[in-house]
Description:
Phosphorylase Kinase, domain 1; Transferase(Phosphotransferase), domain 1; about 25% helix
Amino acid sequence: xxCFSFYNGDKKDESKITKSVLAPSxxxxxxxxxxxxxxxxLNFQNVPDTSTESLRRTSFPSLSQRPSNLxxxxxxxxxxxxxxFSRSVMIxxxxxxxVYKGVIKSAEDPSTKIEVAVKQLGKRGKQGHKxxxxxxxxxxxxxxxxxxxxxxxxxxxxxxGIQRLLIYEYMPNRSVEHHLSTRAETxxxxxxxxxxxxxxxxxxxxxxxxxxxxxxxRDFKSSNILLDEQWNAKLSDFGLARLGPSEGLTHVSxxxxxxxxxxxxxxxxxxxxxxxxxxxxxxxxxxxLITGRRPLDRNRPKREQKLLEWVKPFLxxxxxxxxxxxxxxxxxxxxKSAQKLAIVANRCLVRHPKNRPKMSEVLEMVNQIAxxxxxxxxxxxxxxxxxxxxxxxxxxxxxxxxxxxLRTGESGWFVRMWTPKLLRTS
Length: 426
């Protein structure tokens, strides 16, 4: 799936940068060039910034004054870790640069070795530098079981040029996007999809509501949700993240970036960013889990290329709903569970952002669905690591005062759906 930069206003020195993730992905993100001045910019204090003119940022004490537990590596150390950045240990590649698998000694216990993923900024240096800074800023001060852990970074300038690298915990089971695609040998079972939905919602809830500052992910998508050895889902790739609006403000104004098919319509049209933009993206992701389809797939027939438009006719008739379920599941799913998850998706996809639920509310609803699914019985979760295997109308109900009961699975929500508008890339 292609990703685009959307601009509102003048463009200056547009720099389109395809970013890599820790595992191979068909998704890419085109980053903005020079951002408009915004109160959402993340300040970075601890590493060299070689492009201050193009990376003007406002200082935010709530982030910059927080202690960071990140380790500082040298290029020499990382050469040893990655066999001199050998292609034999490369696990991902994109416009940002390449990602390599390596092994380092634990800081707490040097006798213990831990696997890591080393992301290297491209040789040109400036490409992706702003995202590199933001990534260190965010993951250096936040910590949660459903966020990929940043172990450390490397920032060196020498005769070879700018050296910028990020060292993450290694995620052996790749991305959710991979497992929803036909590239995966076996599809994710329904129980695992619910678990992923829970984990992703927990991660977003933490970013939005559980700290004394708010972070808006801004690039939530299945390729940015990685799976660890125990199949726990973790959000990754925070290069486009932004601080939420300051007290007394309703939104953050930014140049519009993100992934086609996931971006909230009001953000695309106005550049006004809120946490509800992430909620919209999460709603799209739920339909991705339900259908096994990408939000935008140019390889499909024209009428099926846009996921939200394709599912719309099937939601007006309960008898047709099963037709949108991922065929790779081979019917091994509780139909009511899938219907209830679609209810949650629709609530996230309400056209007016103020009417979308908060992520904590979304998490509570998804937890209800997962608990009910467990009680009725579901297929076992896959526990074997891949590393061990070769291989616009509102979506609101007609009566806005009506509450949807997830326990009964009422279906009035099927009647009215959204009409996604085309996103312009000029």
